[in-house]
Amino acid sequence: MDAYDEGSNARHGPDAPRRPAPPAQRGAPADSAAPDVSPGPPEPEVHPGPEPEPVASPAPVASAAPVTSPAPPEPVTSPAPVAPPEPVASPAPPGSWPPGEPRTGIAALSPRYQVGVALALAVVAIGVCVHIGMTFLHVAPANTVTRAHGEAVDDWIYPEFEQNWKLFAPNPLQQNISIQVRAGVRGPDGMTQTTGWYDLSAEDGRAIDGNLLPSHTQQNELRRAWDFFVATHDSENRPVGLRGSLSESYLRRIMVLRLDRDDAVRAATGGSGVIERVQVRSRTSNVPPPEWSREKVSTTPSYRELPWWRVPQDEARGGVR
Questions:
Q1: Closest C-alpha to 251, from 227, 276, 216
Q2: Which of 34, 97, 125, 317 places its Cα 20 to 30 Å from the Cα of 17?
Q3: Residue 181 bridge partners (DSSP)
Q4: What are phi and psi of 83, to 5 degrees?
Q5: Positions of E strands within the chain
Q6: Across-strand partners of 302?
Q7: Residue 223 — φ and ψ, nearest 5°?
Q8: Single pTM value for the model
Q9: pLDDT digit string (tens) for the chain, length 321 residues
Q10: Burial of 307 (0-12, 13-18, 19+ CB in 10 A)
Q11: If we measure between CA atoms, which residue out of 6, 106, 11, 14 comes closest to residue 51?
């Protein structure tokens, strides 16, 4: 606090001369109410000391240049901490699985099962290669391999994988051929009953109509079996060569399997009969020409009826399983 402060509350040292109060304060009564002033924080106590010598104030200067206070120093920013270099992961050894990731597929199996899966895939690959090779030799022109191993190639291809190119023939088939069958069934009383003719081709046709994905069996099994039989037999239904007997066995097994699954046959025999023999026939009719054609063909059907075939005992109940 300045010693020369002229305020009413200014403190003076013990040696400082007291100044007379202003006239306004002398005439005021002692108990007059003064405006309430909230006391401020206590001022620090000033200890008496030697009285400072009066310093002569300098003469006023007419025009003094404003004194500018020096600019505060700019704060010194500490440099940003440098991030430590990221550790470089050592490459995993070949064949190891990254930790923390679940194994899937074959890798999730134990080593023993992995070996089994590898062997199964190898067998499947070998089988596919053999089949493709046999098919190529079957459709390829005659060569040294087919002359030496033609019988083995035919045994592999016929009758299930036979190749047929009639779709690209200059004169495609213009006939409707349906295969029909009837059977001699022995009942529980020992009597043999002959069923009526069942049109198996018509059953396949009904299964194909309206079916977006018909099976290969419904489309081609019966037709290809009959073509195989006709190609290996003469007009008197006598087999030509060894493949003739094979075609008879193939066609007979298909007939027994189809009859065994036929509800009509089971209903006619009471479901307890045994098929002893079968007879097959074909019904052939020409496709009628279109209305705009002047061609005249006969649409009267013709039949080719085969002799009765005795069904072996191992085929009597549903064929070979």
A1: 227
A2: 34
A3: 198, 280
A4: -70, 140
A5: 175-186, 192-194, 198-199, 274-286, 302-305, 309-310
A6: 284
A7: -65, -45
A8: 0.49
A9: 444 455 445 555 455 455 555 554 454 444 444 445 455 555 555 555 555 555 555 555 444 445 555 555 555 555 555 666 666 555 555 555 556 677 777 777 888 888 999 999 999 999 999 999 999 998 888 889 988 998 899 889 887 787 766 656 666 678 899 999 999 988 878 888 888 999 999 999 999 999 999 888 888 899 999 999 999 999 899 998 888 989 999 999 999 988 887 766 666 666 677 889 999 999 999 988 888 888 888 889 999 999 999 998 777 655 444
A10: exposed
A11: 14
- Token reading at 36: 């309430």
**R_g of the chain, CA atoms, integer Å:** 59
Q: Helix (H, G, I), strand (E, B), or coil: what is residue 181?
A: strand
Q: Which of 14, 19, 18, 17 is nearest to 49 (CA)?
A: 14
**Between the CA of residue 74 and those of 70, 77, 85, what are the distances in Å?**
12, 9, 32
Amino acid at 87: P
Is the backbone of residue 105 left (phi > 0), alpha (psi -120 to 50) or beta? left
219 token code pair: 């489309």
What is the C-alpha separation between 249 and 245, in angstroms, rounded?
A: 6
Q: What dihedral angle (degrees, nearest 10) is formed by the CA atoms of 32, 34, 39, 40?
A: -130
**Is 192 in contact with 185 (CB distance < 8 Å)?**
yes
